Protein: 3',5'-cyclic adenosine monophosphate phosphodiesterase CpdA
Organism: Dictyobacter halimunensis
Amino acid sequence: MAFSFVQITDHHLCDTESLLLQGYSPAYALRTVLRHIAEHVADHIDFIVTTGDIVDNASAISYGNACQMLQLQTTSQAPGPARMTLEGLQDFPLYFLPGNHDDRDHFFRQFFSDTPPMSWMNVSFQHKGIQFICLDWGPQGKAIAQPEMLAFLTRCLQNGQPSIILTHHHLVPFGIHWIDAFLPVAADSEAFWSILGAHQSQVLGIFSGHAHVTYERVVNGIPLFGLRSTAPQPVMQDEPLLCLQPPHYRLVTVQDTFLTTRIFEVPL
């Protein structure tokens, strides 16, 4: 059975909608992206997933602002779906992953109030015969493979279902030192890809954020997809520098066990 969903990522919302992040309005950008989704693809998708860094400086206030802005009807079960109403999206399903900017306690209390806070949110959900595996590489900027995460990934893949992996942290190098410094160490990366190597045929793709960059790669036969943030994006140079580019969202369509994607660029 065919279905589609949209990925968005790295919103870095502040304590109020009016606050700026280095001169940039993350709330305005997210609103504009959601309006574009509502006008162009909402009638053809089943849900939206955000792959982390919902807020910039994690606090009860910033998460409260996110919930208020999205008019969020929360759910007890992580990763959702919660239901949001904003910019033409009415009672729309939204799945949440935490990023390294997301405080796990505040994240769970605000979005999944009946789910006890987890140090790492490794969970899965099912949708029309596809298993979505949500992996958490931790609250640090650098990805760290906890044994619990690797064991969870192994258990999920042992059921033999076609699977899509969702993760905040990116997993491929860009050749830019300060971005590549966030990648997992070699031992963690090898352990992760070793597990996937035994189940390569059932992994349809891996979707991530964190780097604020849109890319498509194939590693060990598995497609990897990164996505430009709705917050400011980096200039691809050796020293950190942010710039203003139109944010992206990714439309993903699954037909049986075949996956296709399309990028939408949203003018601000």
In short: The first strand starts at residue 3 and ends at 8. The chain has one domain: 3-265.
